[in-house]
Structures are given as structure tokens and as C-alpha cells.
Amino acid sequence: MADTDNLKDTKEYFLDIPMKAAQSNVRGASALDWGMQNRLSRIFQPGSGKTVMLAVDHGYFQGPTAGLERVDVTIVPLLQNADALMCTRGILRSTIPASLQSGVVLRASGGPSILKELSNEHIAVDMDDAARLNVSAVAVQVYIGGEFESQSVHNMTRLVDAGLGRGIPVLGVTAVGKDMVRDARYFRLACRICAELGAQFVKTYYVDEGFETVTASCPVPVVMAGGKKLPELDALTMAYRAVQEGAAGVDMGRNIFQSDAPLAMIQAVNKVVHERMKPEHAYELYQTLQREQAGRPV
Ligand code: R5P
After folding, report:
1. Which of 203, 228, 271, 278 is catalytic?
2. Which of 23, 199, 216, 279 has the fewest CB atoms within 10 Å distance of its CB?
3. Would you put residue 295 in left (φ > 0), alpha (ψ -120 to 50) or beta?
4. Is 116 annotated as catalytic?
């Protein structure tokens, strides 16, 4: 029984301070359950409201990818610089230390390999397993305009329903097929459909023209996808522009782990996303860190 002797009188009611209502700094998240908002805050830094996600889920359809042959050697040393890691449950359970402090965005769709029609995906993870893994969100590919468009949208809506039941957000990943146009009009359509149908955040590609209309018309955070490997300055410039034009951060894979200096690159990306460092300065920082990390004189 609790000790109830000599209880202190209550007195500090701070009558001159209005009671604060907790507000999320994640777009569209203020009406979500506390658990879901808490999970989103493990992806989007509460300070900047932005995220640097490290995408290493490529193996789910293309097997060992350049830079991901040995995730234990090449990716684990980068993890403390990632707000969230996007990966499969196979890599998570086999290779990622359970002491991980970053959020996890779990790949939850799959099926076809690069040898088949990629849009023919199904749900690949039960939401109970996602909860067991204590992930911060699950990710699902959505193929608007693709051969299996409707099926992929249905994958997402089923995950959204299951996620709402457990407080686990869903990331809708707008996938582009070989023959699909990559312009602002297409990405506005794809992102908005994901958000309208319940995804709590969306991942999409950057476009030079009109990216700000993609972010402006999406009621949940838009995270910029990295895409194919670019020269480091170009990748930093793309990330900078995306954030300036309304992205809530980046989810980059090959542009980090296929860089000549992956650790220096993810550190430079962090500066761009969280501190809005200009790309030229971030590139200088990248070069300095690259030399330091290679043990050469700066
Ligand atoms: C893309 O849609 C998939 O989720 C990928 O496997 C991965 O996240 C892509 O990352 P990146 O294009 O930055 O290498």
C-alpha cells in the first residue's frame, strides 16, 4: 500500500498559464492517435519536423544490390546518422542490431522480382509482425497507372486499416513503371491518391518543374525518393530543392550507399535536410569528411 502519511498539499496550479494542447509538427497528423503520432516522431525529428531516411530495401525485388552485398559491413555503421531505416523484415531480424535507436520503416509489400511485372505486388507482412518488430511505420508500393494499379492500391488500404488498429503509420511509395511519365502532374495524382486513401506519409520522386505543387496538394508529409545514383553535388542539390519546395525530408538509398563515401554523404544530407545547408556548402562538407574518414589530411 502506498504511504499516505503527511501528504503535501497541492498548490501549483499555474492559473496564469493557459493549458497547452499538444500539437504535432507532422503535416496532417494532429488528429491521429497518440501511438501513431509517437511513431511518426521517431521518423520526423520533432525539432526540424523533417527526416533523413536511409533506404536499403532494394533486395526485396532485386536481390543483392551494389552497396548492399553486406549490410552488416556497409550499412550498420551509417545507422546513427539516419532518422529512420527503410528495410525488409529479413534484413531487420538477421542483420540490424535490436539496440537500434532510429525508427524503422518496414517494407510490407512484395512478390514479383525484377524478372516479372513489378506492379503485381501483394501485402508481404502481417501487421501483427510489424507490431512485434516495434516498427515506426510500414511501406507499400503504389503503382498508379500501372498494370496492377488497383491491386496495389488495395494493398495500401488494407495496410492502412490494419495500421489504424495498431497505431502503425503507412508510407505510400509512388512507384513508377518503365513506361510511366515522371512529371509533377503524375506525382500530384499519385501522392494525392495515397493520402486520400489513408497513407500517413508519402514517398515520391523529385521533378525539376512543379515539385512544389506535388507537396502543396498533398495533405500529409511528402518524402523525396533518392532514385538512381547521381554525382554527390547533384544529389545534395536535389535534396535541398525538394526540402525548399515543401518536402518533409528524404528517403535515399543508392545516392548514399553507392557514394564513394557513404558516411560523409549521409552526414552532408543531414545538414541539408535538418539545417537547410546550401548544397555547395554541404558538398564541401562532404569532401572534408570524406578526406577525414579516409584518414587523409584535410
Ligand atoms: C523504391 O521504390 C524502393 O522502395 C527501393 O527499393 C528503395 O527505397 C529505393 O531507394 P533509392 O531509389 O534511393 O535507391
Report:
1. 203
2. 23
3. left
4. no
Q: How would you classify the pairing of strands 249-252 and 103-107? A: unpaired
Q: What is the 3-state secondary structure (H, E, C) of 22-34?
A: CCCCCCCCCCCCH
Cα–Cα distance between 280 and 233 in angstroms, integer?
7
Which triple of cell numbers denotes residue 232?
554527390
* Angle at 224 (CA atoms; ends 191, 128), nearest 5 degrees: 70
Query: How many residues are present in the chain?
Result: 298
> What are 207's three cell numbers?
521533378
Indicate whether residue 266 lines ligand 1 (CB < 6 A). no
Give the pLDDT band of residue 3 (cuts 50, 70, 90).
confident
CB of 159 sitting under 6 A from ligand 1 = no
Give 237-293 pLDDT, tens digit per residue. 999 999 999 999 999 999 999 999 999 999 999 999 999 999 999 999 999 999 999
